[in-house]
Give the backbone structure.
Amino acid sequence: MNDLKNPVRHNSIELEYHFNQPPHKVWRAVSTPELRENWLPKEALASPEAISVVHGEEVRYRLRDDTPPFLESTVTFRVLPNATGGTSLRIIHELDDARLRETNKAVANNNGLPVMRAA
Amino acid sequence: MIENEIFRALADPTRRAIFEKLALGQMNASALREGIEISQPAMSQHLAVLRSAGLVREHREGRFVNYEVDPEGLALIAQWLAKYRAYWPARMEALEGLLKDMDQ
């Protein structure tokens, strides 16, 4: 496992991690609630249900801070095969709390992330 | 450190209530006091703390002063970024541990 890059946008975090395990295994770990609970407990989530799923490729969850003002955000996990049979896991975490979105044009305009594929 | 200031500002339940109220839209100090049982000087003091933490700012219209959630939200964003930059590496270590334990 290594953290390859850490470009930080104004209001989002993007990370990429590599695992030796194959994509289908990583996919199960990020998308199956009982497995996800082991490394991303539901207390961190606004809802334990994923907000969108592209099977085998991408899953998104809503997060809620556990401290005031309990900011909400969206995290996207993208599972991709890497060149050596392992998995590249991309984390795109956007702070898109409505209270900031409404008052902050800069934030709203900086959501310049790749357009999601339709499910 | 601004993160500590934010934490301190929002650790107080009254200030948290004020901040949550302002999150709905700007208002003046007397409108803010409705439903929050505190004196005017106490309200001013709470607003001063929220302002110095970068959470709230003043918005003057003529002789009226309204308060609003800092539209830049920079303090909140800075706090959020710092928290999750430390959070994800720890989560990824936990994920790696899980992957090693999984059969398939």
